[in-house]
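Regression test case RT-17, inverse folding.

Input:
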């Protein structure tokens, strides 16, 4: 019994830690050892909108991305970097459509019945509660905020993007979205091929 409870609690913990973001990355080549230093592009070349358009969110994105690059043995060098970094954080209002099943649930009622007991006929009433009947679907439209954070690594010499990683997810709570930035950036950089 205790093992079952522990397994259920463990499963709940794992499922609750799942992120509501989807992570993607594209690269035209593996980052080789020639890329060891980085610098951030000026903020005017990075853009943010809505929830992410504030200094707190911008600082968290830069700090988290710098920490992830430092873990991967990159060094900050603002004079002659090998790689330039830029981020883009955008929130779009989207409409999602959901198809919900529709059932007809006939009301319960008393219906007359006929019965025989010990040779005598009698009438009585019985309550009848019918099963719901599927009659189709109803389309429901919901307005949601879809957010994405994109990190680009750009080769300074060729001025081409050599790696792009991004996360997309639904943003229900702006405070929670900003608090999740370090974890989101960490998961984006897990896709970095170093």
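Golden output:
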């Amino acid at each position: 019994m205790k093992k079952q409870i522990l397994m259920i609690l463990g499963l709940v913990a794992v499922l609750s830690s799942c992120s509501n973001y989807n992570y993607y990355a594209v690269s035209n080549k593996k980052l080789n050892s020639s890329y060891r230093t980085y610098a951030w592009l000026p903020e005017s070349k990075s853009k943010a909108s809505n929830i992410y358009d504030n200094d707190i969110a911008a600082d968290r994105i830069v700090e988290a991305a710098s920490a992830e690059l430092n873990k991967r043995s990159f060094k900050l060098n603002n004079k002659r970097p090998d790689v330039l970094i830029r981020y883009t954080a955008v929130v779009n209002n989207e409409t999602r459509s959901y198809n919900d099943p529709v059932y007809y649930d006939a009301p319960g009622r008393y219906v007359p019945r006929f019965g025989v007991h010990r040779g005598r006929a009698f009438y009585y009433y019985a309550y009848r509660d019918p099963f719901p009947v599927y009659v189709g679907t109803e389309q429901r439209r919901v307005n949601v905020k879809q957010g994405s954070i994109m990190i680009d690594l750009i080769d300074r010499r060729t001025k081409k993007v050599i790696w792009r990683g991004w996360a997309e997810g639904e943003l229900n709570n702006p405070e929670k979205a900003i608090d999740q930035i370090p974890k989101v950036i960490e998961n984006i950089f897990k896709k970095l091929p170093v």
